[in-house]
Specification:
- With about 425 residues, this protein is α+β, with helices and mostly antiparallel strands.
- It has eight helices and 26 strands.
- The protein is globular and about 70 Å long.
- The two termini are about 20 Å apart.
C-alpha cells in the first residue's frame, strides 16, 4: 500500500445501531410542539439533533446525514460546489456597466462592486463555507474605495493581469495576476484602479466566524487621512516605499530584527501583506522534481515570515501544483478548503461528485468530505487554497484521514 509517512493505519469497525421506533420520535415531536412557547427543546435518542458522526463513515460519497423532523429545519451543512468562471464572470461586466452609467458618484459603487459566492447548502447565507466568505470584485478604471479598517481578516487574490493597487498601513501595493494581498484585522487600507482596464480579484474573509462571535465592526474615520479630490473620499497617505514587504520579509529565513513586526491594531497577524504570484510559482517550479505528497501533489503553505505561523489565526493560505498526468490519493480533513484555479485544468472528486475545473474556476470542499485531484490537461495545474485549518488546529479539532490504493483508511498525523 502506498501511504504517507505521516499516516497511521486504521481500520474502524462499528456495529450498526437498530433504528428507533417511529412512534417514539413522533411522540417527542408532539411534546416539543406543546413546549415550544417556553423556549425549550426536549431531547431523547429518538429525536437527537446531531448529524451522524462522520468519523464512523469511510464511503467516498458520504456527506454526513442531517437530523430529521423539526430539528432538521434549523440545521445547515455546506455542500461541495463549483463556480465556473465562464458562467459567473459575465456578471462582473454587468455590474461594471451599471456602475459606469450610474447617476451617483463612482465611489458609491467602487466600495462594493462585487458578487458574493453563496453555498447551496447554507440556505442563502453569504458564505462559501461555514467559516469563510468569498466575493469576486471588479473595479473600473478610476474607481477607488475610501480608507477603512474592520475586525475580519481579509485577503484578495488577483485574477486580472493588473490588480490596480491596495494601500495597507501606508504601503501602496501594485499587484498583478497571482498576487496575494492581505488586509489583516485592524489595518487601515484603501484600494483602487489607476490603470486603463478593469481589475478583478477574489476577496476571502473570516467574516462568518466574527459574525458568530458578534464582533463585526468597521471604522472609516481614519486619523491623519487625506482627501482624494477625484471622489472626495478619505484615503491614506503613502508612508512606506513601494515594495516594503518584499524588502523586509521577502527572503525566507532572514528577518530584520530592528523592525516592529506588528502592523495595525490587530494581534499576531503577519507583517508581510504582499505575497507575489511570481514567487509562489517559482517555488512550485523549483519543487517540481520532488516526490511530493500522495494526497496533495506539491503543496506549499504561505506563512508569517516572522514566526512561521499561518497568516491569520482563523484562515490559512497555500498553493499546490498537480503535475501533468498526476492523480492524488483521496483525503479528508475537518477543515473547509476553498480552491481557485490559477493555471491548468483537471478534476476533483469530492463527496461523490466530480468537478471539472479550468482557469479561474472556484470550488469548495466542505469539512470532512473525501477529495481527490486529477490533472486532466497537458500542463501542470496550479491551485491556490484558502482554509480554516489554523482555527481547527488551535481548538484541537483538526483531524485528517487518507485512503490508500487498496481502499484502507489511515490517520494522517499533522
Amino acid at each position: 500500500m502506498d501511504t504517507d509517512p505521516r499516516a497511521k493505519a486504521h481500520a474502524p469497525t462499528h456495529a450498526a445501531r437498530a433504528p428507533l421506533a417511529a412512534k417514539a420520535r413522533e411522540a417527542m415531536e408532539k411534546l416539543n410542539g406543546e413546549a415550544g412557547h417556553l423556549a425549550i427543546w426536549l431531547r431523547t435518542q429518538a429525536n437527537a439533533p446531531s448529524q451522524k458522526p462522520w468519523f464512523t463513515h469511510t464511503d467516498a460519497a458520504d456527506a454526513g446525514q442531517m437530523a430529521q423532523g423539526k430539528v432538521a429545519a434549523g440545521q445547515m451543512k455546506a455542500s461541495p460546489h463549483l463556480w465556473k468562471w465562464r458562467e459567473i464572470s459575465p456578471y462582473l461586466d454587468k455590474i461594471a456597466q451599471i456602475a459606469a452609467n450610474a447617476d451617483v458618484p463612482p465611489v458609491e459603487f467602487a466600495e462594493r462592486q462585487q458578487f458574493l459566492l453563496t453555498n447551496p447548502g447554507l440556505a442563502g447565507r453569504l458564505q462559501v463555507a461555514s467559516t469563510i466568505r468569498c466575493a469576486v470584485s471588479i473595479y473600473n478604471p478610476g474607481d477607488l474605495a475610501r480608507a477603512h479598517l474592520h475586525t475580519p481578516n481579509a485577503s484578495r487574490t488577483i485574477l486580472s493581469d493588473s490588480g490596480g493597487y491596495t494601500n495597507v498601513e501606508g504601503e501602496k501595493i501594485r499587484a498583478v495576476r497571482g498576487d496575494l494581498i492581505l488586509t489583516p484585522n485592524g489595518t487601515w487600507h484603501d484600494h483602487g484602479n489607476d490603470v486603463k482596464k478593469p481589475v478583478v480579484w477574489i476577496d476571502t474573509l473570516d467574516w462568518p466566524i466574527l459574525e458568530f462571535l458578534d464582533c463585526i465592526w468597521l471604522d472609516e474615520d481614519m486619523p491623519a487621512g487625506i482627501v482624494d479630490p477625484r471622489a472626495n473620499v478619505q484615503i491614506q497617505k503613502t508612508s512606506l516605499e513601494q515594495g516594503y514587504s518584499q524588502r523586509a520579509y521577502g527572503r525566507g529565513g532572514l528577518i530584520p530584527s530592528f523592525l516592529e513586526h506588528n502592523r495595525g491594531a490587530g494581534h499576531g497577524v503577519t507583517p508581510n501583506v504582499h505575497y507575489r504570484g511570481a514567487d509562489i510559482r517559482a517555488a512550485l517550479e523549483g519543487l517540481r522534481g520532488e516526490k511530493g505528497d500522495p494526497y496533495e501533489g506539491l503543496p506549499l503553505d504561505i506563512v508569517n515570515p516572522v514566526n512561521g505561523a499561518p497568516l491569520f489565526a482563523t484562515l490559512g493560505f497555500g498553493a499546490q501544483m498537480i503535475r501533468a498526468g498526476e492523480e492524488t490519493l483521496a483525503k479528508r480533513e475537518t477543515s473547509n478548503v476553498v480552491y481557485v484555479v490559477l493555471e491548468g485544468r483537471g478534476q476533483t472528486e469530492v463527496g461523490g461528485r466530480t468537478f471539472d475545473w479550468e482557469e479561474n474556476d472556484i470550488f469548495v470542499v466542505p469539512n470532512f468530505l473525501w477529495r481527490r485531484h486529477v490533472n486532466k490537461g497537458p500542463k501542470d495545474a496550479v491551485l491556490y487554497t484558502m482554509h480554516d485549518r489554523p482555527l481547527l488546529q488551535k481548538i484541537g479539532q483538526h483531524r485528517v484521514q487518507g485512503r490508500g490504493k487498496d481502499g484502507s483508511v489511515v490517520q494522517i498525523v499533522t
